[in-house]
Amino acid sequence: MEETIQENESVNTGEVNDTIKPLSPPKKHTVKGLIREMWPAYLIEIIVIILGISITLALEEWRDTVKESKLETIYLKNLLADVDVDLQSLKIASDRTQKLLNRGNELLGAIRNPVGKDSLYASINEDVRAILDRPKFISSDATFSDLKSSGNLHLVKDIRLKNLLFAYYNETQHIREIQDAEQQATITISGSYFMKLFSLDDQARQSVIPPSGGIPQLLKSNEFENNVYLRVTNRQELLDIYQRTDTLAVSLKNELVKKIGE
N or C: which end of the chain has fewer CB within 10 A? Predict the structure, then answer.
């Protein structure tokens, strides 16, 4: 009996030992293992971030392009308005200069072929008053100056248009310098001489002061001829520049109209 009980106990103990097994130690997750397991998720996250940044940059670039395009159009329209004003001013200056040259050439003709009639003195007085006129062209360059000073000149991407702008406004600057020099010469040289002999006031009681020897003697004077010649040559130089600048202005206007219409 005792032997039977012991056998049963040993059998039961074996079954329990077979049922209860020791727990295995927990797996250790290494960095390499995590990367192997999570790399698809990491890759997707990186792609999403890159796409997000790329889309944001593209949108910003698009906004900047639209903004610059609108700003360029505004500048081009303002430049066109300035050139239109300049064309009118050039025409007025050219017309007045041509009238001055006509009167000056009349005087030079009288000097070279003196008629010797004192009655011509009154018309000579009018001619002298005419050649002392100083028609002036003043360019409307506010838009171009703003383009340069504001750093927005890069908005004008058309090379031909940009070259025309610089050529035209360099020419207007040249006109300003020539006009200033001509004005100084008129005031200090011709003006002081003519004012001694001729009245510039239409309402003056005595419009002329006849020189000794009358008209023939005046027309023989080298000083008189030199002053008339100086006025004619100075204004002829300016007229040539006015006409050259007018041609440039027309080309610039056509290019601006073409660019705005695109």
Answer: N
Q: Number of structural domains, the chain?
A: 1
In the chain, the amino acid numbered 257 is V
**Amino acid letter at 196?**
K
Query: To 5 degrees, how large is the angle CA 167–CA 72–CA 91?
Result: 40
Asked whether residue 1 is domain-assigned, the answer is: no
Look at residue 225 and tell me if it is in a domain. Answer: yes
What tokens were used for 114? 């003196």
Rounded to whole angstroms, the Cα distance separating 176 from 149 reads 20
SS3 letters for the chain?
Answer: CHHHHHHHHHHHHHHHHHHCCCCCCCCCCCHHHHHHHHHHHHHHHHHHHHHHHHHHHHHHHHHHHHHHHHHHHHHHHHHHHHHHHHHHHHHHHHHHHHHHHHHHHHHHHHHHCCCCCHHHHHHHHHHHHHHCCCCCCCCCCHHHHHHHHCCCHHHCCCHHHHHHHHHHHHHHHHHHHHHHHHHHHHHHHHHHHHHHHECCCCCCCCCECCCCCHHHHHHCCHHHHHHHHHHHHHHHHHHHHHHHHHHHHHHHHHHHHHHHHC
Structural domain contains residue 47: no
In which domain, by residue range, is 82 found?
77-261
pLDDT confidence of residue 205: 47
Structure tokens at 10: 């040993």
Radius of gyration of the chain (CA): 47
Any domain includes 57: no
